[in-house]
Amino acid sequence: MRLIEVAGLHKCFGSGNACTWALNGIDLGLDAGSYTVLEGRSGSGKTTLLNCIGALELPTRGEVLVAGQSLSRLSPDERAAFRLHHIGFIFQAYNLMGILTARENVAYPLQLKGAGRRQALRQADHWLAQVDLAGLGSRRPSELSGGQQQRVAVVRALASGPDIVLADEPTANLDTVTGEALVELLRRLNREYGTTFLIASHDPAVIESAPDVICLQDGRVCAQP
Q: Where in 92-184 does DSSP place strands (E)?
């Protein structure tokens, strides 16, 4: 089943003669349960494509459908709700809330979806145990290593059961060994839970791990499965 369909996607930043085209006619489709890497140099359009699929940016032209929903037809509030219920994000800079503990960071989106605090924290503890962070849930991000913070970010993205997880350069701030461990974790979670992953990266370890790779160059697809 096609979970993501992108048709004729163009994205311009600016207007008129000052317009910079970040995407120039992207067409692609991804199946539910797939694990795909977007490969390309900095400036190739990877992050912009993720943002359009994640309902953070609207296309200038073209259409993005996720789980059958045309994102352009949603109001800002509807897009925010769609992100909450359907999409998990993993960011290069982790984006954890410094005033919250690891378990509170994981529990936060669950509470936004309506779970009670106690239930959300129990689920957070379960997920932290899945990535070998049991016993560290009471630590704040500043008390965790970069690799540990990224694992917290991974389970925060997964805990609410999204249709798709979008990851933007998830290994960029990690050393080689920690980055490779993170790649193995993402592949394991994809296999065990069937969650769809779309990862933007120019890290060879990330690219080599993927069964499907889509190459972007100058806002266009240069190769795809």
A: 164-168
